[in-house]
Amino acid sequence: MHRPRGRRVAILGAGFSGIGMAIRLKQAGCESFVLYEKADEVGGTWRDNGYPGAGCDVPSRLYSFSFERKADWSHHYAEQPEILRYMQDCVERYGLGPKIRFGTEIAAARFDDGEGVWHLTTRKGEVFTADVVVTGLGQLNRPTVPELEGLADFAGTTFHSARWNHAHDLRGERVGVIGSGASAVQFVPRIAPVVSKLHVFQRSPNWILRRNDAAYAALTKSVFRMAPGLEWLHRAATFWEHETRALALGGPLAPVVRTLVERSARKHLEEQVLDPELRRKLLPDYDVGCKRVLISDDFYPALTRDNVEVVTTPIARVTRDGIVTGAGRHVDVDTLIFATGFDTLHFLAPVDVQGRGGARLADAWRDGAEAYLGTVVSGFPNFFVLYGPNTNLGHNSIIFMIECQVDWIMRCLEELDTRGRSWLDVRREAMVESNRALGDRLRGTVWMTGCESWYKTASGKVTNNWPGFAFRFWLATRKPRFDDFAWGAGREGTGSTGTSRSLR
After folding, report:
1. Which pLDDT score, from 0 to 100, does residue 365 have?
2. 3-state secondary structure string, 238-279?
3. How far apart are CA 450 and CA 452, in angstroms?
4. What's the maximum distance between 2 C-alpha atoms anywhere in the chain?
5. What share of the chain is helix, strand, coil (3-state, %, to 5)?
6. Which segments of 368-480 does DSSP mark as H helices, in order?
7. Nearest 5°: CA angle at 364, between 361 and 365?
8. Residue 409 dihedral angles phi and psi, to the nearest 5°
9. How far apart are CA 362 and CA 381, in angstroms?
10. Using CA atoms, how far apart are residues 242 and 245, in angstroms rounded to an integer?
11. CA atoms of 33 and 106, how far apart (whole Å)
């Protein structure tokens, strides 16, 4: 692997993206990088989302780095503590600890046209300089809470699922859960047995498939440990099995495949929910895949408990001791838990990013975020976005996409050194053409069939998801098309740690 010539690299965020980028730089022999992390520990979304039952809906084999495979996952689908430990182990194994600056949130990044470098300003007012900026801030890190009339007057306890209040005991309480999406599907079955009454306020139901989770047998883990080739084959088979699920998202076979998936989901619902009225509440009226498809073996059974109610009437307002529905009914609750997701559309917010000529990234993305291969934006040289616009998946592992991006970035840094240039910037026309082609492919996907989702803006622009197979993204990022870039002139000392300010 090429060794970057000491170019100063600032990595924002110590989640999967930031850790993966740092490891690749370390493997290439580059030590002139720093990870800036606003929290006091690594983990990103897996640090923040510690609610009961939090786990991944992608198999453990795929939700891990290909270069750091783990033979002894406890289950086919790992839960949050095990995933977080895996990330912490990666940091320790690759000696990244000294490279992480905890408690440091970057508030602004400004490109200096004269010097060809980036100036980073923290919330505390510190200023650092870098030649390259790589953001690993993710798409699911800013919880949203709806603006409900009277919420400020509620006398009970409130918190978002992504900021779970572990000090608060729910036993014997009347609990209202607002939202029934991915997080609620996981924590509702864990809290239902201990609360006195649980009201799940549902705006729209989700298509839910069987999870079929199971623990890995001790013998299996031993075999994978002793024969890593078999573990690799198992991982590969899992990857390609999940790739076939992209057939439901778009293309000529999509209607047929979606019919089969919907049939499976309906059967799952019918087998676990016998009450026809509750089943009616839980049956979606949109195409499967238009919103995130969820997997669970215990959510439906939890909703059939005597102490659990699914409320589909819209919320009118919050009172001091409960919620009033649009039908005028008052529901008494002691604690409100918001399972209302994240702000997924304002990528990189709240970082104020200014590129060439003072252009603001927020202005460039006013009508919806977009990037060239989801990674670079014209006018913002040496600025790379991991898990950026249109890199999310509806069928496979985002870790695969992140690794594709990281490898692509490493090739760009190598080319900078080969050419002896200070920066590279994707040409505007190349980015426009790339996103035009992307838009054409997106128009034929299930996400454009009419439902509302966190994948797209109010105007209907899909900003989050990659259309189709993940391996197509691998092909697209395998070899950068350097003719699509403009190149900054070389300057004396470029890439020399001895002639530049330290990142720290």
Report:
1. 96
2. HHHHHHHHHHHCECCCHHHHHHHHHHHHHHHHHHHCCCHHHH
3. 7
4. 74
5. 35, 20, 45
6. 398-419, 428-442, 470-477
7. 90
8. -65, -40
9. 16
10. 5
11. 15
Q: Coil, strand, or helix at residue 408?
A: helix
Please list, in sequence order, all residues whose beta carbon lies within 8 angstroms of the beta carbon of residue 123, skipping any fewer than 6 positions away: 38, 105, 106, 107
Indicate whether 43 pLDDT > 80: yes
Q: What distance in Å separates the CA atoms of residue 205 and residue 231, rounded to the nearest whole number? A: 37
- H helix runs in 114-245, sequence order: 182-191, 218-226, 228-243
Q: Please provide the size of the chain in residues.
A: 504
Amino acid identity of 243? E
Tell me if 128 sits within 8 A of 503, measured CB to CB.
Answer: yes
- CA atoms of 109 and 128, how far apart (whole Å): 9
Nearest to 137 by CA among 7, 11, 10: 11
Return d(Cα 193, Cα 495) in angstroms, integer: 59
pLDDT band at 499 (very low <50, low <70, confident <90, very high): very low
pTM strictly above 0.90: yes
Measure the CA–CA gap between 182 and 186, rounded to whole angstroms.
Answer: 7
State the DSSP code for 467. P
